[in-house]
From TrEMBL:
Pfam families: UDPGT. GO terms for molecular function: UDP-glycosyltransferase activity. It comes from Cryobacterium cryoconiti. SUPFAM superfamilies: UDP-Glycosyltransferase/glycogen phosphorylase. This is Glycosyltransferase. The keyword Transferase applies. InterPro entries: Glycosyltransferase_28 (IPR050426), UDP_glucos_trans (IPR002213), UDP_glycos_trans_CS (IPR035595). Keywords: Glycosyltransferase, Transferase. Belongs to the UDP-glycosyltransferase family.
Length: 438
């Protein structure tokens, strides 16, 4: 049996997708990944075959920098980073307006390339990143049965009256003006309609007999796989989803890192706090510096993945801290008692898997909905990254370090249910229950 995984050329997308594929590899099956060249080493590290597929202009092997991107994509990234400094609505507005240019990149050409890969590989099952719209267009137009994997918060697939790009929920720390929200909704609706027009135009070329989509953002594969814990999702919203399975998390095995292992093995009794803003938002060194200032006032050991930020921006680094551009996140989280994050889905699900409460500072996209869900469950707190002071951050950190009672017990139960490779096993079972006929 052969599994084909279709992924954008971004490490943050490929890591969880490839982790799902480990269940097939462990069963002695063949796994082929279609992705771009920037993530080729990641595919090789998993032991999978790879075929080349470029799904967009940009790429990210681990830490993204604007200067490493092709012309046009670099300016778009700088514009996005600038928008995050203004606030929630400004960032979501920028992202909504950018979608008309970056979500369906050369859709007909990419779709035909995907269809050729399927013809060459002859997979028994296909899983594809939900945000790989051109690839999904290829599969839908050719009638190729597949599983659609939502790697972010489940609201990445809108249901009911939801509109893609407009968060269905956000933490109380954000209080956007009503007029601003009305304007954002109008922009998201216009983008939805424009994007659906582009989708239908490409669909008409690929399959002239196909029924046009009413909302291309709501299109889905034959089964929906959600890389998210069901325990954090509103049950009423779940009833509106198409056939689906909640995977919980896709926590990867990481290669041993001798320096990190030595640091973790230190005999100190101080609790460990892990800090990371992921591959994109690590550029916000100003916020990382405030987080570091807050942590210097607590009796903790700290591991900070600075990503694109120069560690010098953080100020004085205590000797007991571990500060590097990149850290093996899963390994460090396993020993941590608190994590400070931007609220990316990998960070959230990996922290939940190890029962680690979260202080979330969301900047963009589905991070707001994800942060609200964590806060509602009692597993974390959220603050606005542009306005939270070091003192406010420290108070929130202290509260989460002392997390106890029902919230602590519920988080421990959730973590236990997500461990042992639960996500890949659930994905494997879900696909075997719905045979894919090519």
């Amino acid at each position: 049996m052969t599994l084909l995984i279709i992924s954008p050329d971004y490490a943050s997308h490929l890591f969880p997708l490839a982790t799902l594929g480990t269940a097939w590899l462990e069963a002695g099956e063949r796994v082929v990944v279609a992705s771009g060249p920037a993530t080729a080493d990641i595919v090789a590290a998993f032991g999978f075959e790879r075929v080349n597929l470029q799904l967009g202009r940009g790429s990210n092997p681990g830490t993204i920098r604007a200067e490493d991107q092709p012309t046009g994509e670099d300016d778009a990234l700088r514009g996005f980073f600038d928008a995050t400094r203004l606030g929630m609505v400004e960032t979501l507005t920028f992202q909504a307006e950018a979608r008309s240019n970056d979500l369906l990149w050369n859709p007909v050409e990419v779709a035909r390339a995907v269809q050729q890969i399927v013809a060459d590989v002859q997979p028994d099952h296909v899983i594809v990143d939900h945000l790989a719209f051109s690839a999904r267009l290829a599969l839908i137009s050719a009638g190729i049965r597949h599983a659609d994997v939502v790697l972010g918060h489940p609201s990445a697939l809108p249901v009911g009256l939801e509109v893609y790009g407009y968060p269905p929920d956000w933490p109380d720390a954000f209080a956007p003006a009503g007029d601003d929200l009305v304007a954002l909704m109008g922009i998201c609706e216009n983008v939805r309609d424009s994007f659906t027009g582009q989708w239908n135009a490409a669909l008409q070329v690929l399959d002239p007999t196909a029924t046009p989509s009413a909302d291309a953002f709501m299109e889905c594969g034959d089964i929906l796989l959600l890389n998210y814990p069901a325990e954090l999702h509103d049950a009423a919203r779940g009833e509106l989803l198409p056939p689906h399975a909640f995977l919980g998390s896709a926590v990867r095995d990481e290669a041993a890192d001798a320096d990190v292992d030595r640091w973790l093995a230190d005999g100190s009794d101080l609790p460990i706090v892990y800090v990371s803003f992921g591959s994109f938002l690590s550029v916000r060194g100003d916020v990382l510096a405030r987080v570091a200032e807050a942590l210097r006032g607590l009796d903790v050991r700290v591991a900070i993945a600075t990503g694109a930020t120069d560690p010098a921006e953080l100020g004085t680094i205590p000797d007991s801290w571990l500060v590097r551009a990149f850290l093996p996140q899963v390994t460090v989280l396993e020993r941590s008692v608190l994590a400070v994050s931007h609220g990316g889905n990998n960070s959230v699900t990996e922290a939940m898997t190890h029962g680690v409460p979260l202080l979330l500072l969301p900047f963009s996209t589905d991070q707001f909905a994800g942060a609200a869900a964590v806060e509602t469950a009692g597993f974390g707190l959220s603050l606005a990254p542009n306005t939270a002071t070091a003192a406010e951050l420290r108070v929130a950190m202290a509260a989460l370090l002392a997390l106890g009672g029902d919230a602590r017990q519920s988080l421990d139960r959730l973590g236990a249910s997500l461990q042992g490779g639960a996500g890949p096993k659930r994905a494997y079972a879900a696909l075997l229950a719905v045979p894919v006929e090519l």
